Amino acid sequence: MNLDGAVDVDVESGLATAQSVSQIVDDMQAVIRQIATAASTGVSSWNGRASNAFDNTHTDWNSSATALNAALDDIRNQLTAGFSGYDDQDSQAAGGFGAEGPLRL
């Protein structure tokens, strides 16, 4: 907010930030997939109690990873939608002023 009370939103910077966050989310999800693949591959050739314990831990980790992926998707979607929608709403609001002609008192 600036000194006269107006809100200044730099939509272009916001969209660039949203794109950057989206790339980070993609990178994080790729790492999560790599970990899950490596763990699944390792447990398939491993036998014994340690294997069972690892499998249980991996199952818990996978549940957490699924929740993390959902949260990351939500962050990306909300951030992108917020800035994409703002520009449209601002343009629509601006078009409403003076649409009926000059203000008459």
Describe the structure.
It comes from Gordonia oryzae. Belongs to the WXG100 family. Residues 83-105 are annotated as: Disordered. This is ESAT-6-like protein. The two termini are 30 Å apart. The protein is built from 2 helices and no strands. It has a domain at 14-39. Helix 1 packs antiparallel against helix 2. 78% of the residues lie in helices and 0% in strands. The model has no long low-confidence stretch (mean pLDDT 82). It is mostly helical and 105 residues long.
Show unreliable segments.
none
Helix content: over 70%
- What string gives the helices and strands in order? HH
Main structural class: mainly alpha
Number of helices: 2
How would you name the oligomeric state of the polypeptide chains in this document?
single chain
Give the overall shape.
Answer: rod-shaped
Global mean pLDDT: 82
How many β-strand stretches?
0
Largest sheet, if any? none
